[in-house]
Amino acid sequence: MRTKLSEAIHSRVILILCVVTLLVSPNRLQSQASLFDPTFKVGHGANGAVYSIVIQDDGKIVVGGEFTRIAGQQRTNLARLNSDGLMDFSFPQGTDGPVFQLLKQADGKILVGGAFTNLQGVARQRIGRLLTNGVVDLSFDPTTNISANSKVFSLAAQPDGKILATTFAFGGSTGSLKRFEATGQLDLSFVQTNEFDGWFAFAVCLRTNGSILTGGGFQGVNSIMTPSLALFSTNGVLDTNFISDVQTNFPRAVSSLVPQMDGSVLVGGSFLRTTSANRTVIAKLTSAMVWDTAFNADAFDPNYQQNNFPHVAVIKMQPDGKYLVGGYFQEVGGYWRRDIVRLDSQGKVDPCFDPGIGLGDDYSSGNAGVKSIALQADGNIVAGGDFVSFTGGVIASASSSNLVRFLPQSDCNATRVYLLNYGGRYTAIGTCALGGTNYLQQSTNLVDWFTLGTNAISGSYSDETVSARPYVFWFIPSGSTTNDHSVFFRIKKEY
């Protein structure tokens, strides 16, 4: 049901026979290979958003978010799964409020940050720590060092065991940057009075030289303008020599900061820079904390609609130097990559990581998409967030929400056709490798083919029409509910 794009001999026409059948009995269809891992036994995923995932050294998966059920079991906001996705029943129950951030320390202990006051039955206000066996670390007790009307959004661990945390006040417009001793007490050598003005910090990054970079939607720090990016010295003093070069236009947010060995930092989010008219979702700061002009990542959603901006929420480095990017977006560098994509070190799309139809649901909320990515030891990729995934065979149905696992590699530059059963309607979707002219075609006899559209077509995504991005099609046949006749679809590619 899937063929790789290959060169045609003695012909300038390449015909990609990606044919799927619309039948009454979907079980008669052969399964179509996918990056979605069918061996991940998480069932229907989580019934609420998954904000953070960490993999323990023993392979177990700790998941935090805002849910009450996960992997088919009742769990509140915090759970641990075995490496295969099944629930680990030895892990105590969760929290009384959302978990926004999990961070594994070098010693294997896991920091937990969020909007809770109770962690596994132990009083912990907004931040706590778990031992490697999953129970609360009683030696880490922050008492009330984070106020009850705040929530913790991001965490970072220093080599000396000290812990950085960004907070935001409920119903307010300010956030703060705190540093804790390994015991949970405030570090009195650190400036604890820094306040983010206008909004809060989503990300905190400890640089190789010990300085601290924060990113978020804030306008400034301590009434000093430094939109969305702020740099602090090792003792917490704001570096006023750093210029963020981010415009104050909304929406504006830096959501992910990933330090590199050379001192540079990958920056993900959605913002406008003063030196560019185009919205930035991924960029790089050099070790001198200026934008790296040599880093030119592929464009994300270049034809986005008003108030539907693409956004990068998380960047996860791989050992080979490539990195996975999650957020809410649909097209990257001309490829259909819904909510998750893998880029090489220069920011170019890796054509060998193809999530097919991909993830995502409602983009109007601005809160959809992938929020967290974790790598297992075997290279498999666990992704969490606020999305619906369409997995299974040729006729794909919504099968897992908010937590999925991907295999690390797919066929490179493959062309695929899917039938999607969504809300009782069947939709034909074709995803194509770059290059040439692509034709989405339909037949009732596998002999006579009718062209529904090409990749040159653009338009609304309404029923009974063909809509296309450069290399993806949607087609919803009129009255395409369960029928007792066969309809075949294929993609034809011509150069």
Which helices and strands, and how do they pair?
Blueprint: E1 3-4, E2 13-14, E3 20-22, E4 49-55, E5 61-66, E6 69-70, E7 73-74, E8 78-81, E9 99-104, E10 110-114, E11 118-119, E12 122-123, E13 127-130, E14 150-157, E15 163-169, E16 174-180, E17 195-197, E18 201-206, E19 212-216, E20 220-221, E21 224-225, E22 229-232, E23 253-259, E24 265-272, E25 279-285, E26 311-317, E27 323-328, E28 331-332, E29 335-336, E30 340-343, E31 369-375, E32 381-391, E33 395-406, E34 414-422, E35 425-431, E36 437-443, E37 450-454, E38 466-469, E39 472-475, E40 487-494
What does this structure look like?
This protein has strands spanning about 5, 15, 20, 50-55, 60-65, 70, 75, 80, 100-105, 110-115, 120, 120-125, 125-130, 150-155, 165-170, 175-180, 195, 200-205, 210-215, 220, 225, 230, 255-260, 265-270, 280-285, 310-315, 325-330, 330, 335, 340-345, 370-375, 380-390, 395-405, 415-420, 425-430, 435-445, 450-455, 465-470, 470-475, 485-495. It is globular, with a radius of gyration of 24 Å. The chain is built from no helices and 40 strands. With about 500 residues, the protein is an all-beta fold. The model is unreliable at about 1-30, about 390-395, about 455-465 and about 480-485 (pLDDT under 50). The strands form 11 sheets. Strands 1, 31, 32, 33, 34, 35, 38 and 39 form an 8-stranded mixed beta sheet that branches. The chain has a 6-stranded antiparallel beta sheet with strand order 14-15-16-17-20-21, with no helix packed on it. Strands 2, 3, 36, 37 and 40 form a 5-stranded antiparallel beta sheet that branches. About 0% of the residues lie in helices and about 40% in strands. A hairpin with a 5-residue loop joins strand 26 (about 310-315) and strand 27 (about 325-330).
